[in-house]
Amino acid sequence: MVPLPPASGNYTAEAIRDPVNVPHFRDGPRRDVKPVSITQPDGVSFTVDGHQVRWQKWGFQVGFTPREGLVLHLLRYEERPVIYRASLAEMFIPYGDPNPAHYRKNVFDMGEYGIGVLANSLELG
Asked: Under 8 Å CB-to-CB from 22, ≥6 apart: which residues?
């Protein structure tokens, strides 16, 4: 038997500063990570017009929900439809329990926990 974790696994910015909530983050987020610098001296190779993104031969609309996080709509390649709607909440995990009735149980991890709530906003720079 594996014991239950002693504390919640909430990894929001506020929660990881609380050693009672997440004891292994006693000092807040890690500070030993070096910055990432991405440059494109000739400019970007995509365009964004509202929610519409175009990149090379691809086109799609971007959405966001608190439960699912990023959602892509009407994904097209050379204007041909590829995917109507895609999100991480639709990814399910069929855990490998050998019990006879377990094959029908799946956990929709991202949708159940609300990955959108744990997402960080991106800022230029």
From this structure: 7, 8, 9, 10, 11, 15, 16
Q: What is the pLDDT of residues 38-88, one digit of tens each?
A: 899 999 999 999 999 999 999 999 998 877 778 999 999 999 999 999 987
Q: Which pTM was predicted?
A: 0.54
3-state secondary structure the chain: CCCCCCCCCCCCCCHHHCCCCCHHHCCCCCCCCCCCCCCCCCCCCEEEECCEEEECCEEEEEEEECCCEEEEEEEEECCEEEEEEEEHHHCCECCCCCCCCHHHCCECHHHHHCHHHHCCCCCCC
Which residues face 28 on adjacent strands? none
Other Cβ atoms closer than 10 A to 89 = 20
